[in-house]
Amino acid sequence: MAKICIITKKKPMFGNNRSHALNATKKKFIPNLQYRKLWIPNKKKFIKIRISNKGMRIIEKKGIEKFFN
């Protein structure tokens, strides 16, 4: 399964891991994704989504109805 947040569209980034001696090794930075079941009141059902913590904060602020109609 793709590691992409449905709300924020965050996906893995690639970069370098730097040591104290400034040696560079490749690293993959993955977003903090969680599985959540959310209740949609106007559809009267739960949905199971994979969402980042930033996406959860956005849903709390703007409401679930804005994203899932």
Automatic annotation (TrEMBL):
GO terms for biological process: translation. GO terms for cellular component: cytosolic large ribosomal subunit. Belongs to the bacterial ribosomal protein bL28 family. It comes from Buchnera aphidicola (Therioaphis trifolii). One of its GO terms (molecular function) is structural constituent of ribosome. InterPro entries: Ribosomal_bL28, Ribosomal_bL28/bL31-like_sf, Ribosomal_bL28_bact-type, Ribosomal_bL28_sf. This is Large ribosomal subunit protein bL28. The keyword Metal-binding does not apply. Keywords: Ribonucleoprotein, Ribosomal protein. Pfam families: Ribosomal_L28 (PF00830). The lineage of its organism: Bacteria, Pseudomonadati, Pseudomonadota, Gammaproteobacteria, Enterobacterales. Gene3D superfamilies: Ribosomal protein L28/L24. It comes from the Bacteria.
